[in-house]
Each structure stands twice: as structure tokens, then as C-alpha cells.
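Bench log, entry 3. Co-assembly request; chain sequences pasted below exactly as received.
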Amino acid sequence: MKDLEFFRNATLGQYVDSHSRVHALAPLTKYLGLFALAAPALASRPAYAALAVMALGLLVALAAKVRPAFLLRGLKPALPALALIMALQVLLSWPGDESAVLLRLGPIDVTLAELANSARIAARLAALMVTLGLFTATASESQIVHGIEDILSPLSRLGIPAHRLALVVGIAFRFIPILAGEAELIVKAQASRGADFGSGTRNPVRRVKAWLPVLVPLMLRALERSESLVEAMEARGYSGGLRSRLASYPVGSGEKALRAGLVLFAVVSVILVSRAPSPFGTWL
Amino acid sequence: MAFVDVRGLFHRYPGSPVHSLSDVSFQVQPGEYLAVLGANGSGKSTLVRCLDGLAEIESGTVLVGGLDPMNAEQLADLRSRVGLVFQSPADQLVASVVEEDCAFGPENLGLPREEIARRVASALEAAGLQAERSRPAWALSAGQQQRLAVAGALALEPELLLLDEATAMIDPPGRTGFLDLIGRLNSDGTTVIHVTHSMEEVLRAGRALVLHEGRLVFDGTPADLFERPGLESWSLSRPASLEAARRVRFAFPGFRPAGHAPEDFRDELSRLARASGKVPASPRTDVSLPAPAVSVDPPREDDALVLDKVAHEYLGGTELSRLALDGVSLRVGKGELVALVGATGSGKSSALQHGNALLAPSSGSARVLGLDPAAKGVDLKALRSRAALAVQRPETALFETCVGDDVAFGPRNQGLRGRALVERVRSAMARVNLPYADFRDRPVRALSGGEKRRAAMAGVLALDPELLLLDEPCAGLDPAGRESALALQAALSSDGRTVAVSTHSMEDATRADRVYVLERGRVVAEGSSAEVFLGTEPPPGLERPWAAEASVLMWRAGLTDAPTALDAAALADEALAVLGVAPPGGVPRGGLEAAP
Amino acid sequence: MKKSVVRKIVVAGVLSAVAAFLGLTRLGYIPWFSGASLTVMHVPAIVGAVLEGPIVGAVIGLVFGLTSLLQAAIAPTGPLDPAFVNPLISVLPRLLVGPAAFLAYAAFRGKLEIPALGLSGIVGSLVNTMLVVAALALFGFLTWDLFWPVVTANGLPEAGAAAIVNVAVVAAWKGVARRGGKASIAAEEDR
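Structure output for the full assembly:
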């Protein structure tokens, strides 16, 4: 019963600790890097611009000793979705589309704009997936949390306890595997009492009913466990105020220059990719 | 001056008509090791929470290190001097990485980074977790997680360590490592207050408090406590070592072992046997028992459950893949009561889950009630209600508002309606001692922990199964709850139902007809409990039940012809036979209370 | 139960984890007639808002939105997933789910506890559906003609599911009696 193994899916991206120089960067720098690649990927108009961003991402991956194949493998599950998008693009006719009709299949026109749109969506998605995959491969959970803390630290200086948001994210990370264990136990308990999950019935109302005995105790257990965690945190002296931190990420002058470079790159590349000339006219 | 000073303490939960603590007073001196005992719901955990400012005091005074937990300004200072470790290892870890979790306390104190690093290093060192410092916390074993929780408390450099049933959820090897750590800290000067259900752990403390219905009913040494009549009325029991010695003493006054180890029992018996002129035969120090047997009888046609060389890979094909079962063969005969024993992660739960087809073998085969769950056309839903599984901590899956409805979930899924449904629910609830008339409309959330466990058990019994698979039914229960869970097992078995139960307690396993010992996904010993615990050398890492160990030691010393005792009563009879005294006839279990 | 900052932080974190977990494992998707799955991932935001206030609800919505953004980008599974890479579609509407649910609850809580919980589930859920569908239409992933059909086909059953879960979880957690405090099995006794 493979459905019952929730740990299989309960991770978002995967950290690959290869001790590279990219891994050694401070979390804040990694967030800037994420921004510097994600912004042009999202802003790119022609598909080739997005593909250029993706290629850059793969080059950084090489420097980070993360195999490009590892990142590209993540694209595979997206292929059916991409096929669907393309089908939708082609099947629907879009108001204002005056581009050349390339192919006529009965009532369906395949236009240049539709193809170009499909290509752009696919390229943007691929670029973003590579970028985010690279980020989660090089930033561990605790660095993701520390990064949020560092980004928000100017607020802390104003006396606003912004670290609380970082703590929320940290607790969420910690609880996902715990919830996976709880959910597995609950599903097994209810399956042992004759509940059926997914199997057999096609009746959606019955399927909704089948989830209640899982969802309700899962949320109740989450709340019960949060009561215990509240006590544990209070007992260890936390009361919501400002705190210090063990982890520190000393930033040398080289890394400072890199940060400035990343911001500059983000600005320039966004301008470039959003104005990049399209080989197929205005629609692209 | 006392480090903890409690006077006339009253506490009441909001909306509750009764006090959870009434007029509790006691003092604890620096460096003491205090055990706090009592049934579930007796107020032990509330007391600990009052000491750390987590529960509101209604009246009375509490001072810890001279500080008042109800004073908001003193509370932060108080908490920096007190470490608190809770029951569930996973619920008290805050950060994902070991050293960051350990740093959480000192970070809250706003200490400089260097000081935090120093404290974390020394706390992890003390807890033996230096090598794990950059590992994810969830990847640790339960025993390691609990030591990490202690390390997190130690990083505060506390003068007082409060342990709230901190060993309830870890297996025996993890527990020993944990208790040794606490013992070292105490001998280095840390004051320890240890709330526990384990009578064996009380013996490590210098002093014991007993709470009963919110009142302090005993304050004295553990030795005095266990001499007292009426322990059962406080839901306590005697450790096997004291129970056996006490039974011997009843017929042979003067039997006083020097300590609580099985060796002490043997030495005392040996001394008295010599003194009374019964010189024992020469010791059998060089005789060793045969190695444990793992030969499983060939399966029979009517066996309720047969696993044949079953391997199961958990999360196969991912980086987390783990071989949970590695060629397990076992059989559970119709009407048998079989125990699966082993540490956490030994494969007990996986084996049971093959018993109702929740898991399918990666290789090998399973047969449940004569059917192969992997065969086409087998109705798994119907099979699961004939071979019902109560998962670990089954109370976590309760989801209906009212107890009666939750118990009815299973039989409703079986298609039962109307009077037949009500009768099924009524009899299942009667079995676990939750009378239908009283508990039908009771909100699940208002039940105590022990009652929730019983309600969840009723939900499984309501399926009216032929084969019951119980995964650690006694885990986390107080002695009275554990006794009633064991009695339920025995009653189900004598009804003619087949029962397979997993446990990490060797004592509980002695109550079964047959025992399988599992280790790292393999069966390492099999046989009747007498064969496994008395007839063979225990597999590495497994400790015999206390009484069985003493019985084997007595045989080795030449005092007896064969080891026969699995529990304290039988051990006492064995010892009395050595001393040439007839055992007191007709004294029932616990019937010695009137003795001098 | 005393209100504390620590509890707000923890409940926000834990319920965010529930939302993320439901999304990551696809447990939060219930296949439905219309073809598009019903989702219940926004329910933790509603429960969090009812128990700990609008800010906690908004924070859970934020984490849920970010998770669906990341998931749409890293491991898309549905035809509309690429749209959710846009934070204005995936994050912004989710921020408002909790606060809307809180307002609905706050208006009727107290004596009408159970109806207030049901209503807050419906309101929170509808805010989620309508804002997301509107954002999808605004960015051209759907046409506006589809607004009401989608809200009816998916939004209404989602609202029903959210109301049921919200009532079941919060009533059990706060110990509020339902059906006059009687078990439904009582009705079987006379059959």
C-alpha cells in the first residue's frame, strides 16, 4: 500500500550538501541569488530569454557541485502539465490573435502566437524550476529560516519582533515530517476500522466523507502537539521577545561585492529580458 | 535552605469542579533526587507545571531558588535556572538541527554567540550527542531525541531538572542511557525532580512523593514506600525485586537483599541457605544455556497469521529507504496469544501491519486467516475487519465528538445499523470498562489519557474480529492502566480469539503463550516465554525480565536444579523451596498487605 | 487557555505545516465532479484565525500561498499550476482567507458558536475561491465568463467541506457541545 507512505512526498526540494563555495555563502546572499535569477525568469518575454536564464542557473549549479541532471530531473513530472497548457493554448482561440495560422486541423487553428505563448510558458516554468531547485539544493532548512530572519532584521532594529515570522517558518518545517508520521498512523488506524480511502468508490461525496476521519484528527493532533510545544518553548525561556542566535554567517568583502552584483544583475537582466527583441513579432 | 519550597498549594483547571492539587506542601534540598508518583490524573504533571510557571496557582506559595513563578518579573530568571523535560521527545524540539535546538534556551536568554556555542558544546558532550550535532533532529532515535531534550535543558545550566514522565516513550536501552545521564548530572550537584510511572525508576531516587487525587499522600524513601500496604489503591505497584523479597520475607523473616539487582537477591539467598545448613551444590558457572532458537514450526492449515520469509522495504526507491523487515517468518496459531518483543525500530509494528494487509511484503508471503491478501479478488476491507489492528497510540485517531459515535465508526463501515449496531458498540465498550450508558454521549476530548486509549480499543473490538493485532497497547499507561490492558488481552484470548501483541517490555511478554524476539527486522528468538527467557541465553541487547534473571542466577549458583520463575511470585516460591520453607498457601497476589 | 504570543507563533507554525503537508502529499485535494479537485488546504488558515485571531490566520495563509507557489514551480501537477507561480494569484488571495473567516466568526461567536464556526468556514473558503478565480481571470488564465461557473462548481462544495471541518475541529478542541450533546448513535437505539 504505497499510498500510506507519506514521507515519500513530504519534502519540498532537496538539500544536497556538497560543501561547495556556493553552499558556504550566507543565507541572505542565497536569497539574493534566488531573486536575481527568478526575477528575469518571470519577466522574460521571448522563450529564448528564459532559456538563457535557465542556462545561467545550470552554470551556477555546476559551481555549486549540484548535478544539472538532478535539477532537470525535476522537470519530468511537469511534462504532462506542460502538454496540457499547450493543448489549451492551441485549442482555445484567443481574442486579438492576428498572427499567422500555421496549421489548420478541422475547426482548430494552430497560430504562431499560440505556439510562441506555449513556448514562453514552458521556458519560464523550466527556468523557475531550475532556479528554485538550485535554491533548495544549496540552502538547508535552517538557512532558509535564518535567511528570513536576516531579511527581516531591519524591522527588528525598529523594535518589531520580526524574528517571530522566521520562527513560524522554522516550526512549520519541523512539523511537516511529524505530521507525516501522525497522518500515516491515523490513516492506518481508520483503514483498520474499515474506512476506505480512494480505493473502490467513485462517488465524490463518499470520498469527501472518507477524508473527514483523517483530516479532523490530524488537525486536532496538530493542535495538541502545539500545546506541548508551547510549554516546551516557554519552559526554555522563550516569551516572544528578541533573542540572540548561535548560527552566524560572517560576510567578507568578496561576498559583499557579490551581493551588490546580484542586485545589479537582477535589475539589468529584468530590463533586458523584458525588452529582448522577439524573432516572431509583437506577440512574443 | 530548600531549593524548592511548596506550601499549601492549590490548583484547579478552569471550569473544573475539583482541585487538581489540594494543599500540597514539601521542600526539596539542593542536590536531592526526588521521584514523584501517582496514577494518571493524580496531579503529578500539574505539580511540575506549577513549579515552572506553566500552570496558574490558585492559592499557596511556591518558591524555586527563592523565586516566585507567579511573578512575571521573576519568572524569566526562574526559568533560566530550571530545565524541564517532557514526555514526548518530538514535541519539545524546536529547531530542525540538533545543535540549533540545543541553543534555543541560551538564545532566548540573549547570551552572546561565543557563550551559546560553549554551552551547547558542553551540553551535547554531557548528553553524548557531540557526533550528532549537525544532524536533523527528526533523524535521531527516540532515546537520542530525549537526551537532546535534556541537552537543551542543560544548555540553560540549570540548578533544577524537572522530568515529566520523560522516559514513558522510549524503549529499554534508550531508557537506561537516559537514566544514567540523569544519575551523572545529579551526582554532579543538579537537583532532580522526576515524575514517573515506572516503579523501577523510583529506586534510583533518594526520596519519593506520591500524589493521589491531588493530595500528597506519601513523602519518604522509596524503600519505605514499597513496604507500605495499600499501594494498589494509589495505582502503584512494587518493583519485581521488592515484591519477590517481600514474599520471601513473609515466610522467612530476615531475608534482606543488599540491593535491587538480581545478583543481590541470589547472594542473599545463598548466604541464608549456607547459614541454615543447606549447602548448595557446586556452582554451574561454566554451564551456559543454549543459544536462542529461531526454528519456527511449519505452518498449520488453521493458523490465523503466517508470515513466510517476509521482507519489507519502507520508502523503497527513495534516499530514506530502510529495510523494516528482513526475512521474518512467524506463525500465530488459532486462539494463541503471541507477543512480539524488541526495541524501537526492530520491526514489530511492520510485522503486525502485514497481519491486516496494511503493508504488503516486498518479498516473501503472508497468509491472514487462510487468505493471501496479495491474491486477486480478496476483499481487503472485509479482511481487515476480521483481522483488526489497533495501531500504536490508537487514541490519536479518535475523531468523532462523542465516544459512542467513535466506537460505532468501524461497525458502521461494516454496514451494521440500528439495534445490532448499538449492541455491538455496547458490548465493545463494556469490554474496556466504559459503560455505554455513561460514556455514549461523553465528549472524547473530556476523557483522561487512559480512558481515550480504552475508547480507541473499543473502536477496534467493535469490529468483532477473529484476529486482534495490538501494537504496544500498554505504552505510556500507568501501572493500573497497564494491568487492565494486560487483563483485556488475556480475556480476549480466553474467549477463543487470536491475539498478537507487540511490546518492548519483557515483563509484559511473559504473559503470552509464545514469544518472538525481533531485532533489526529479523526474528532472533522464538518459543514459549519460559523457553525464551529461562531456557536459552538472551539474544544480545535483550535483558531478561528481572525475576527470570534472578532465577537463572540462582540456578547458576547451584541453588536450584533448573530456572523456572518468570515473575516475582514464582521467584519467591523458588527461593523458599531452596530455604526448605513451604510457601504460604493460598495467598493471592497482593494479599500480603496484612503481613507484619 | 491563556492567550500568549508563544501560542500564536506555535499555532501559526503548526497549522502552516498542516496546510503545506496537505498540499505536498496531495492529501488536501479531493477529486470532484467538475474535474478540478476540491482543496481543503485553506482550512488550517480558517481554523487558525478562529482560534488565535486574524494575524495568525493571515500568516498561515501566507505560508500556504508560498507553498503552493513553490510547488507550482517545482512540481506542478495541474493544468493551471503555472499560473500559481505568480504570487498575486497564489499568495495574495490566501492572505485574506484567515482575516475574512475571523470577521465572520467574530460577528456571531458566543451564543451561536456552532453556526458562527460554520459561517466562518464558508466565508473564508469563498473568499479563497473567488479571489483566486478573479486573479486567474485578471491575468488571463481563465475568462471572466467562467467566474460564476467555477465558484458554483468548486467554490460551494469547498465552502461546505471547510465549514464541516472547521466545526468538527474547533468544536472538539474548545469542547463545544453539538447536536445538544447527544451522540448520533442514540438515534439508532429506536430503529
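The first strand of chain A starts at residue 101 and ends at 105. The beta strands of chain A are 101-105, 108-111.
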